Amino acid sequence: MDVKRDYPAVPIFGLPFSKMDMAQTVGYLARRIEERRPTQVVTGNPIMVMAALERPDYYRVLEQAELIVPDGAGIVWASRVAGDPVPERVAGFDLLHELMREGERRCWSVYLLGARQDVVEETARRLGERYPLVRIAGYRNGYFGPEEDEAVVRAVREAAPDLLFVARDALTTQEPWIARYKEALGVPVMMGVGGSFDVIAGRTKRAPASFQRLGLEWLYRLLRQPSRAGRMAALPRFALKVLRAGRNVTERPGGAGENGPER
Ligand code: UDP
After folding, report:
1. Which of 117, 177, 216, 221 is the most exposed, fewest CB within 10 Å of its CB?
2. Is the CB of 168 under 6 A from ligand 1?
């Protein structure tokens, strides 16, 4: 089923990236919460786009998310190449905090799902301290297999939060997991937040503002965690593909998400 979008977006290889700035994004999600409409938020980056172009099932997951925000600097750049720039980068980590801030005004509740047990516990404690008017409806670690999905989904559903943050693996257990259980979870706003809990709990550091301004957050993460190199090989491939496509970067390459992997 196609998702109806009532906000401006620019497609990058056919995947619709929102053209709302941070404030508009928060306003939009607040409305979705008021209307209790299931909304999967993807904080999209070039690694995810490249994975989607290689795996039709993943393409469909992203395509059917109600909202994809431009999290990666590479996406902001690609939208400029398209001649239809997004107003700003909407980083998942910042959006999480903005939603918590808005949640203070509206007395929302949040469920935290993902990361190691000690990390998610510390995240719950710190978020509770920083945003005391947001109720922590529940939390649990992100290390469980499909056999536990049903119990986890039930626990979230019973906790009935307004927001669900999922900190797992974007390419496997995060976005595809949310997409699969979107209806069953019964939560209005569900968002994949990757390594955000580790940063909130003080286990890892976010890139300094200077790196962020230069669009080099990925470089900072690569330097601190060289094991990310494999995954990051997608970045130069994305850049090349965008340059080759030029203004046609908006177009969905033949086959992506439809008849099989792109060759
Ligand atoms: N994680 C998890 N379950 C898994 C795999 C990963 O809960 O099966 C957690 C991991 O502990 C970390 C987060 O998911 O907190 C992923 O962080 P990473 O920095 O790799 O994600 P990115 O920000 O690059 O998407």
Report:
1. 117
2. yes
